[in-house]
């Protein structure tokens, strides 16, 4: 499956952005999906994940500020990011867990087989 992330940009602290990830093919609804990010000098980290049955996981650093969702009819994954902070600055990647599960959103990067190209999010203070 091919993934195309979009929606990044340069915003001020406290602003909002919505990232989108468009997936190819007809099996999007059977994939677990996740958003990861990587800041310069840091390891890639899971930000949020959503299972086939729309169960979700959030990293502690984004709980209450970010919302992951999926629209299977449009083969699209979203990440609504509110109250952005400078520490949210990173390249954001969407990824697909092709062996998706109904309840388990998948919190290990090794579970994700397909990755998008990344979109830059920069939050100024």
Number of helices: 0
Provide the helix percentage.
Answer: under 10%
Give the beta-strand count.
11
General shape:
globular
Q: Give a short account of the largest sheet.
A: 7 strands, mixed
Q: Which band does the percent of strand residues land in?
A: over 45%
Oligomeric state as shown: single chain
Span between N and C termini?
Answer: 37 Å
In brief, what are we looking at here?
With 125 residues, the protein is an all-beta fold.
Topology:
Blueprint: E1 3-6, E2 9-12, E3 17-23, E4 32-38, E5 45-50, E6 56-58, E7 66-71, E8 76-81, E9 90-97, E10 114-115, E11 119-124
Description:
- With 125 residues, this protein is an all-beta fold.
- It has no helices and 11 strands.
- It has strands spanning 3-6, 9-12, 17-23, 32-38, 45-50, 56-58, 66-71, 76-81, 90-97, 114-115, 119-124.
- β4 (32-38) and β5 form a beta hairpin.
- It is globular, with a radius of gyration of 13 Å.
- It starts with a strand and ends with a strand.
Could you list some keywords that capture this structure?
125 residues; mainly beta; seven-stranded mixed beta sheet; four-stranded antiparallel beta sheet; 0% helix
């Amino acid at each position: 499956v091919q993934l195309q992330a979009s929606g990044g940009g340069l915003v001020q602290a406290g602003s909002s952005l919505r990232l989108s990830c468009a997936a190819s093919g007809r099996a999007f609804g059977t994939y677990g999906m996740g958003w990861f990010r990587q800041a310069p000098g840091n390891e890639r980290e899971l930000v949020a994940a959503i299972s086939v049955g729309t169960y979700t996981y959030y990293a502690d650093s984004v709980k209450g500020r970010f919302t992951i969702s999926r629209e299977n009819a449009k083969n699209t994954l979203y990440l609504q990011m509110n109250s952005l902070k400078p520490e949210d600055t990173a390249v954001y990647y969407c990824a697909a867990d092709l062996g998706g599960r109904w309840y388990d959103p998948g919190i290990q990067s090794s579970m994700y087989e397909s990755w998008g190209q990344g979109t830059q999010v920069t939050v100024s203070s």
